[in-house]
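Treating backbone geometry as a discrete language has practical consequences that deserve illustration. No coordinates are needed to read the tokens, only the vocabulary itself. For completeness, the protein is quoted in full, as a sequence line and a line of structure tokens:
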Amino acid sequence: MVKLNLLLLFVAVICALAAVSSSHRARKLFIGLENEQKRMRDLDIEWSQLQLEQSTWANHARVEKIARDKLAMRPPAAGRVVSVDMQ
């Protein structure tokens, strides 16, 4: 009877340790999940900012102004424009 009680006590202690370990691991995984979700939100914000920046830099009026002012480019005369049809 004493051996059975000791065996049951040993099994109960092992089960309790396994439950504590499992709970701790679940908490760690949840914290990791929250960290990754925050990182995802931060990357989404950065992506939005980069898209806005790209649209600003690629603005047609801005590109035309730089071409005119810094590169001294001018539109070609009407008679010098050639249209090529691609078939």
About this structure: Residues 2-57 form the longest helix (56 residues). The radius of gyration is 34 Å.
